[in-house]
Amino acid sequence: MGSHDPELIQRWQRGDPSAFEELLRQWQQPIGRFLFRLTGKADVAEDLCQEVFLRVYHGRSRYRDNGAFANWLYRIALNVARDAGRRARHGHVSLPREGLASEAPGDVACQRAEMARIVAECVAELPEPIRLVLVLRHYEQMSFEEIARLTNTPASTLKSRFAAALERLRRRLQERGLGPEETGP
Amino acid sequence: MNCQQVRAQLAELLYGDVAPLEKMEAEKHLTCCAECNSEYRALANVRRLLDLPKAPASGAGLPGVYRLLAERQAARVRRWRRVASSLGGLAALLAVFALGVRLEARVEQGQFVVRWGSPPERTVNRQDETPASKLFKAPPHEPVSARALEDQLHTVSKILHALADDLRELERREQVGAADVHARLKEIQEHNLRRFAALERNLEALYVTSQKGE
Asked: Are A138 and B47 in contact (CB under 8 A)?
């Protein structure tokens, strides 16, 4: 997880608005990306990112500076994403089922974009607990120990979930025409 | 290492989360087991595909956060206002009810008594009076007088006024907070406008220079 500037954190905790703005500038991209990976939707991720920094704004008195600002921030983002997931559970959007093979071949860039779309959809289809581990380990490149601290889950459980996520993805991608044979080395 | 042990570790092996000795043994197994090797390559393909979707370069945006903050604070002020007016209305209703029906509440002979309207006439049967009861006659228990009732209502009214004052103070603080946020938002907007104007000027200057060059 990224480093943090203790002086900046202290200024923010004293109520300096410019310190909050600096923190937001530093962290909005990583948190925005993390939320996008979790939700699979750019517009939703942007709204959730605003909600995260709103909670950060209100939560400065609750934060105890122990050098784990990134952890605290990611936990807020995770809670915001979970709350949004609960609210949106009834409005689940069904995803297209057809694979690449049934579509007309386009140029390489188009094909890559299409593959990227399918991968993002398959990731978004994963159940929340295993999707979270996948996003944190693969995209955020956190170690299992860091993820364990963030989610209060034993590292051994996280490792099983991670293996399950990769396995499910492998099968789902294969169903949609993105197996190792179709996509090449 | 056998197939089962290796397969349980494929994901960790792929991401380098296995101890060096175990890694060496697993890799040795993969070179001689075609099935495990195929599983490993399938997972490696998943890992490669996961890097295809690029996250858009979008974040919260400072004006967006401040706008959301201002909206939430305004909503909170509205909520407090509704609560304060509801409480005031309830207090007024209670006061009118209590005055109108001469509500009386007290503990009498170990029982909680609520009474409204005029107090009942006390009838004393003189035949029941014994000499002793005449001698040791307890003073008649008077119901709460109108004056006492007024005092009680006055106290209730004071409490309600204090509550309303508290609510007003909270509302005032919320408004101050909202004003701060608005000011900050305006500052950011002005800053952005200035940057935009400077950008326009630079573009104009560039255009003029390029025209001269031609």
From this structure: yes
